[in-house]
Amino acid sequence: MSGQESNTKIILEQKESQSLSNKPAKVLRTVDVVALVVGIVIGAGIFRTPSLVAGNVDSGWVMLLVWVLGGFVSLAGALCYAELTTAFPNTGGDYYFLMRAFGKRVAFLFAWARMSVIQTGSIALLAFIFGDYASEIYGIGPYSSVIYAGFAVAILTLVNLRGVNMGTGAQKILTLFEVLGLIVLIFVGLFVLSPNSESIQVRETNSGNSLGLAMVFVLLTFGGWNEAAYISAEMKSGQKWIAKALIFGILLITAIYLLVNLAFLRGLGLSGMAGSNAIASDLMGNAFGKPGVVLISVLVGIAALTSANATIFTGARSNYALGRDFPVFAFMGKWKNGSEGPVNAFIIQGVIAMVLVSFGLFSRSGFETMIDYTAPVFWFFLLMVGLALFVLRRREPNAARPFKVPFYPILPLVFCLSSSYLLYSSIAYTGWGAFVGISVLLAGALLLLFKPSIITSGADNST
Hints:
By secondary structure, the chain is mainly alpha-helical. The protein has one domain (27-198, 208-456): Amino acid/polyamine transporter I (Up-down Bundle), CATH 1.20.1740. Helices cover 71% and strands 0% of the residues. The protein is built from 18 helices and no strands. The longest helix is centred in the middle third of the chain and has 36 residues, at 290-325.
């Protein structure tokens, strides 16, 4: 172990001992955690990504199989996170795991990526979902989706700057709207519309088809289970039960996603799905005409705005932590009491997200461009977290592990290999957005190279 790694470990252990008196209360039941997993994972993406998945497969059966594989990969990853979270509980999440396993340089790059690529790209991506469906209700020109997306980012950032955040009750109501939309789609696709003749046909292979890219879209829609794993310390029944909650939650989500895609497939056919920019609106339009389009577009718009608002809220706080821990970004590490939030972090995040929204002016689909932009960086760091499990097993074999990944090392290896394949796919089969995202990450690496004081002078506030 190097001197720097040894010092990092000592600092982390000291901070852990200082925070033992602030342990979270064990108040959550297993059913509560399942509900949280489902609520976090099921977002606005399921109203947009099915069309992209359909465009990259050759038959309806293959499309459904890809969604099942997505559930399996998510489950393997969730079990890896369950071990890391229960062995090294910390509010820093991925940032802390990476720091403990690989040191401050990798942890800094992850924080940089969250600020400039992962979190801000997710905000822009959700804004484009809102823009696509808002355009179905009232189009405002060739760049309608971009305009609506930019408007959404600006308004939600301003709302958060004023400290006007949705309360728990409002969030529950909005989540109910989202679930209602899925129930309506499943019912209409399976029981109202007549089966589409193309739903079970195998179409001729398109040179642009890619199973790897289809998996990128599917796993984007499954994203969020890693956030849910952070609540293991609050479970009444003990941290071991986080794995059972994650397993049941992801199985439930997989079943819901299969039903939604089966409804789309039955109602629109594979080609109809692939050719849609607002797939839920097209399904409802076929069943009920314009009133159906308006109804589902409103529900999806609410879902997208809800997810975007939550992402803006949490993203600014991770940027605040970046400013707190690394002096070069100290301007973001200030908390303004008057606004009850990290004002500078909100502003920087909003500006970056607006720049990313502008990418939609130069691409066929702003939503797809944002997937291209975020996917390689996202899968790189998810792979690093998977590798951190192996590193920490070897480096800290005596650490208490209330839960251990079953079938070690096979299951973690499956997760790492799938993450590697998706990293490759997100570069090989995507557009120019992927290279922009990678370039932004490399800019952070260059910053480390030419300004190493970022690491040596940064305060270690990772707990």
